[in-house]
Amino acid sequence: MKYILVTGGVISGIGKGIIASSIGTILKSCGLRVTAIKIDPYINIDAGTFSPYEHGEVFVLNDGGEVDLDLGNYERFLDINLYKDNNITTGKIYQHVINKERHGDYLGKTVQVVPHITDAVQEWVMNQAKVPVDDDKKEPQICVIELGGTIGDIEGMPFVEAFRQFQFKAKRENFCNIHVSLVPQPNATGEQKTKPTQNSVRALRGLGLSPDLIVCRSAKPIEMAVKEKISMFCHVEPEQVIFIHDVSSTYRVPILLEEQGIIKYFKQRLNLPIDDQPSDLLMKWKKMACRYERLLKVCSIALVGKYTKLSDCYASVFKALEHSALAINYKLDLMYIDSTELERSTEAENSVKYHQAWHKLCKADGILVPGGFGIRGTEGKLQAISWARTKKKPFLGVCLGMQLAVVEFARNCLNWKDANSTEFDPGTKNPVVIDMPEHNPGDMGGTMRLGKRRTVFKTENSVLRKLYGDEMFVEERHRHRYEVNPELTHCFEEKGLKFVGHDTEGSRMEIIELENHPYFVGVQFHPEFSSRPMKPSPPYLGLLLAATGTLNAYLQRGCKLSP
User: Fold this and answer.
1) 23 and 139 part of one domain
2) Catalysed reaction(s) (predicted)?
């Protein structure tokens, strides 16, 4: 097993996840089996109870793990399926060690950060690195490990110490450290500054790790003189300094790395049994990146949500839309609309914001209402759904978006004016969305319906079934506490809102479709989590096709994309 540790310096959010994913993609293109581990030094057991404004979206895995969004990057880039144990947190490690101590496994020893916590980290990494993540179920050959945060953070120190020890346990030819740093360019001088990188590498060395590669992030391409300066002051060869400037799309990052000789370096440094040239996989990435940059036709989608100030809050939704747009040769114009700004209360408080939000919604080619929790902004989402339904705008509702589509239909088509979800109004007389029987109202963490579940189509006359290739069932990832009330579904079906997909027992509503509408679809699951650059998610693809007026032609071709 070969281990590649990716650390970061100067600032957090520098792009370690994309760098780690891109390195994995390059090595996979050389014919190697690659897995990935993300280490988050926070004390939470997992990411499940975070607000998206803390660390971005919560990504859900097949096994129900609620994890950091970087695991989504790994899955999309490498086309693999990871497990919850591929996300290590301080909370998980300490819980593991404390449970062992309570069990008596340490035989009366004083339990300390060194060696017990650091040993637990190393043991976890070695065990998880062996778990197959590809469809062929073979053991991986390379494990890319991303250490979250920034070198020097107090909460990350036990992990840095664990890898300082681990580099000797694994041996030099099996362990490599890549340090991602920032080269800022102040507007006042326009000069690219190397001092932050020098200080970051010095801090890393002071903790016992020496970088084999220094990946320098910058806004603009870095000059050769800067590369030579970093090489000299950071005690590495010039070819060990890699530059990644801001690019038009993340698909370009693996290509930038490959152009700077990273395959040849890894072959020598880790003694890998590979050719110097990448295979067809990286050529596909190159073609995809070139196609992305040449797109001329634009499709605009309005994303109506409550976490719109930070794009990472809907990272997988954005990627799923982007994959679908690329598949049909359109450039995506994603307009984020804060759902509270569509509400009547905003019109009274700030009429400019209100009218700007409605202007965006009205000019969009399609409307998407993603998942979420809490009552804030729900009335605005209901307004957007009503607009999509009555104006026959293509619409996709995901999780809460589907539940609100049911609420909107009940209020405006069934005339149940107080229809609501028990999440927002526990005393409603028409509870069209209810708590699931297994919902635990006490503990919040890990108590939802999580992970990959089967959805069975109950009719052949379904747009989504055709988009999925006319399969009898699909398996997608879930994350919800509430569900459509199964006792009331017959009232909706009589008026044209069809529940075309159920769970395997037939009691849980999974997919809705509205009759006599170009595309009005709601799904209880989160199809964005399984979307891949070369395999777009069918519900999202359907939204883009409908928004561009090409859905019927696509279905008539037997769900084949035009060349």
Assistant:
1) yes
2) UTP + L-glutamine + ATP + H2O = CTP + L-glutamate + ADP + phosphate + 2 H(+)
Residue (of 364, 315, 369) closest to 335 by Cα position? 364
CATH number at residue 37: 3.40.50.300
For residue 445, is pLDDT > 80?
no
Per-residue pLDDT band for 563 (boundaries 50, 70, 90) equals low
Q: Cβ contacts of residue 556 below 8 Å, gap of 6+?
A: none
DSSP state of 110: P
Cβ atoms within 10 Å of 82's Cβ, excluding its own? 25
Residue 237 in tokens: 């060869």
* pLDDT given for residue 143 in this prediction: 96
Q: Residue 553: its pLDDT value, please?
A: 85
Q: 253 in a domain, yes or no?
A: yes
- Separation between Cα atoms, residue 459 and residue 107, nearest integer Å: 61
**CB-based contact 543:396 (threshold 8 Å):** yes
Tokens, residue 69: 């969004």
- DSSP per-residue string spanning 401-450: HHHHHHHHHHHHTS--TT-EETTT-TT-SSEEEEE-TT--SS--TT-SEE
Contact 87, 72 (CB under 8 A): no
Residue 532, classified by CB atoms within 10 Å of its CB into exposed (0-12), middle (13-18) or buried (19+), is middle
Q: Is 559 a catalytic residue?
A: no
Residue 399 designated active-site = yes
Task: Check residue 121 and report its DSSP letter.
Answer: H
Helix, strand, or coil (residue 160): helix
| Stretch (H or E) spanning 199 | helix 195-206
Which one-letter DSSP state was computed for residue 532?
A: B
Q: Is 173 helix (H, G, I), strand (E, B) or coil?
A: helix
Residue 99 lies in a domain: yes
How much is the pLDDT for 21? 94
Active-site option among 30, 234, 299, 399: 399
Instruction: Say how far apart CA 22 and CA 421 lie, in whole Å.
Output: 42
Average pLDDT over residues 272-290: 80
Q: Give the CA dihedral 151, 155, 159, 161, nearest 10 degrees.
A: 70
Q: At 75, phi and psi to the nearest 5?
A: -65, -40
The whole-angstrom separation of Cα 15 and Cα 305 is: 25
Domain end among 290, 321, 355: 290
Domain count, the chain: 2
Residue 457 sits in a domain of what CATH number? 3.40.50.880
Average pLDDT, the chain: 90
Choose the final residue of a domain: 232, 261, 290: 290
Please tell me the distance from the alpha carbon of residue 78 to that of residue 71, in angstroms, as a whole number: 10
| Banded pLDDT at 278 (limits 50, 70, 90) | low
Gap between the Cα atoms of 26 and 23, Å rounded: 5
Distances (CA, A) of 122 to 145, 294, 434, 544: 12, 45, 44, 45
8 Å CB contact between 82 and 71: yes
Domain that holds residue 64: 2-290
Residue 528 falls in the annotated catalytic set: yes
d(CA 396, CA 404): 11
Pull the structure tokens for residue 201: 């590498």
Q: What is the largest CA-CA distance in the chain?
A: 75
Average of per-residue pLDDT across 43-72: 86
